[in-house]
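job 3f2a | input accepted
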Amino acid sequence: MASSWRRTVGNVRSFIGNSMGGLRGGSSLASWAVAGTLAYFLWVKPSQDLKREQEERAALSAASDPYRYVEKRKPIPDPQETGLIYGKRNSTQKSED
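job 3f2a | predicted structure (97 res):
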């Protein structure tokens, strides 16, 4: 019974060691550090730079034309034939005949 769980623990440790490339100790830590650094500079940093650049472009384009039209009121959808109503709805109701 005791050897069964020891064997299971050993198999799990072996699996983890093999999945990490079979390296142990300092060489394993160094290889993970190199891989993490490469991943950061090849994937994470370029995407962050691109996002920052897009935000800067959007800010510059917004600041370049101060007189452009900006919609400040939110239209209220109206199910009637009149389309959209801006501002408050009229509270007057039609009288019933």
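job 3f2a | Strands lie at 76-77, 84-85.
job 3f2a | closed
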